[in-house]
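A quick aside before the break. I want you to see a complete sequence-to-structure record at least once, exactly as it would be stored in a machine-readable document. Don't worry about memorizing anything.
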Amino acid sequence: MWRSITRRRLLCGAALAAVPRVARAQPAARMPRIGYMSFGPVARGTLAGSHEGFLQGLSELGYVVGQNVAIEYRHASGRAENLPQAARELLDLNVDVILAVGAKDVDVLLQLTRTMPIVTVYVSDPVGLGFAESLARPGRNVTGLTTLAGDLTRKWLEILKEVRPGLTRVGALWDVGMGPATLMDTAAWRPDEAFRAVGVRRHPMPVGDAKDLDAAFETARREGVGALMLGPSSGVLRTSLARVAELAIKHRWPTIADLPVYAEGGLLVAYGADIHDLFRRAATHVGKILKGARAGEIPVEQPTKFIIVANLKTARALDLTLPQSLLLRTDRLIQ
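That is the input. The structure line, written in tokens, reads:
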């Protein structure tokens, strides 16, 4: 009897030892990782509401950071020359997809990879810039959303003329250090069509550094400029926004750009796509890629929500009374 029991125990032990180790201890599944690449640090709110919108979008898809998804953040500290290093660090981390906030971010990434899936948000014309073959079928490794900022030029000019009737010449300020990502110096932007339609002339104001601002404003003044618009993806202009606003008030120019952060920083009006909504929707693109979809097969989407923000403090400094027609359309007034 004792021998029979002992023999059964020995056989059972041998059988357990023969079971492959993987069957007894399955390794935990790898948590997907998202790279988040931006011009400036997220904490500084370079694009107001963007990060919160992205996290909201992920949450709506069931992703909780730290539980079933991780985010690796890299930024360029507000300097375009730092972007390549940020891009290389994300690629070295072997993330599953990169959310590239702006056009310059995408441009730098594409110089390093044609395989990493990239989702972009703050890009005016991904087709015109060569990031995608078409909006419906990007075809490459980039998808996301477009701000249509280049197409808003006519609306910006109409608002400036509404604020200052009789306006004949508008300065177009952009940062040449951002390259063609600004669209302000490329055929893709096609600004002259909008200027002709509104009946004003354009005065180009390219700057390469904050120290160029004073000379650019003085030249524009001599040329009879009476208002100012800021180009999309303008790095120096975002980091030197206070100085831009100060010079515009000095020259008595109403100003306009696309992001609320510009109006919050002292410009007169901001009109553009709802950035919070764009980033929330960008999470859907990221989610599809995490589930196995190819970036080139996910259509680039256009904005569906636009907002107007006006700075009444700046209006008072310019001795301007904003027309009631504009105030009624404004989503937010900064006192």
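Two observations worth writing down. The chain has two domains: 33-148+274-304, 150-273+307-334. The CA atoms of residues 38 and 75 lie 5 Å apart. We'll return to this after the break.
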